[in-house]
Fold each of these.
Amino acid sequence: MAIPELVRRAALKQVEAFCETRVPPHARDQVRLEASVRGDAITIAERRPPWSPDFGPDWTSQRIAQLRYDPDSGTWSLFARDRNDRLLAYFKPIRSRDVAPLLAEIDADPTGIFWG
């Protein structure tokens, strides 16, 4: 069972607003935050322009976090990227019907796992 369309739209709107506010307008030519949806998950990724012309024009992408929807409970949970770029359940289980508490945890980043 997939994310209900209204739930997906509301969550994506909140995540996109979060991404928009994290990077000031004057820095967006150097770094962007973007959200993408795949299946029951919304992934937040940091994007940066190529640092050398030798690597071509494509921006690099690094996953920051993932919010996963559980259709059985109707809740979202938070996942963080490890050093091997695998997504693991966040050490402090947060389950919520709304993505706002998960975004607040990413923003606060009490352990430095998301922003370093």
Amino acid sequence: MSDAAGCGVDWWGADGQALRRVLADQLHAELGRLRLGSAGGPPPWLWTDETPIGGTPDGIDSLDMLSLSAAVAEMLPEAGLDAPTSARFGAWCDAVASRPVRPPRSITFRSSGSTGAPRRTTHDLGALEREAAALARLVGARRRVVSAIPAHHAYGFIHSVLLPRHLPDAAGRPDVVELRGRAVPQVGGLLRPGDLVLGHPLFWALLLQGTSGPLPPDIVGITSSAPCPAETALGLRRIGLARLLQIYGSAETAGIGWRDDPARPYRLLPGWRRDGGSDDLRRDGLLVPAPDRLAWVGEEFEVLGRRDGAVQIAGVNVSPEQVGAYLARHPAVGAIAVRPMRPDEGVRLKAFVVPAGAAGDPVALEAELRRFAAAGLSPAERPGAYSFGAALPRNMMGKLADWISGEPGGSP
């Protein structure tokens, strides 16, 4: 795929194992969306050629087949996939592998939808291959790639599919080993010297919590999808992780910057530069709005927080972030997330609260927070619903996720 990628490597789908991992995750996620979270059958990392999509030979119908083929065609817009007549996973792999008459030049990802409706973003594969090549130079030769992230999202695709093909290794491309489905206490025992471990902040925090002894030597990690708390990064260093590469960016931009020290600013990845004196960036000459407010120190930057995320409540611009910051000042609030209600919930803001310590009865706490909100927030800013739980809702990638108002614990 030298023309498409600009890196002298073939089409990523020519690697049958990589293609299988991407397709399994994409099909499983789409079926889960169609079935409102219940995809049926084994998890995607256990799929074989004979695995029926949907869990049983008749687990999907003709409408499902159309939706699944559309999801695959959306991801690979140049593949021209015809829906297989079989529900077997192997038939889908064969259909995609045999279809392209030339290497695809782009790929489309959906955001997780953890901050609203999923968005579709199409990336030039050449740019992603160059990012993977730059990361390969940062991590150096690795014996294996051990992944705890899905392959059908932007970071999972770049790090677990493209990156291994660029890693320098005299013995050839390193094997990719799946970590999902493993109990966290087992993970430390599965790692070997020279591994590259791919994860997200929640994975790394759980690994730190569940690891009793030191990690094997010469293990490098990559974390992406959300900010990694400094205490997590420093804790991993204490138990022997040689290096943790933190990637900054988004599903829409892919990787923008990196750092391996939580006390240092991020450095721009190759191809990126600051656009004059603004927060905006340029990649390969094209203007790209930064996802966050950035503070620049020369050519390096710190991330200050999301750009204006104001929403309209009853025609008034309201900042959920600022509302959350105000409510977090109440001494009974340990942590809080504020976001707009879903359309079926109402037209106001809602809040999910983790009480501080033994905060007592949630009913009494809600009444107290409503009084506190009335004292310092405008009517449009005051949350219309409160949920309570032991931890803020997060998805599998560790990002803050939505929840259903009124459900016990604010079930996501």
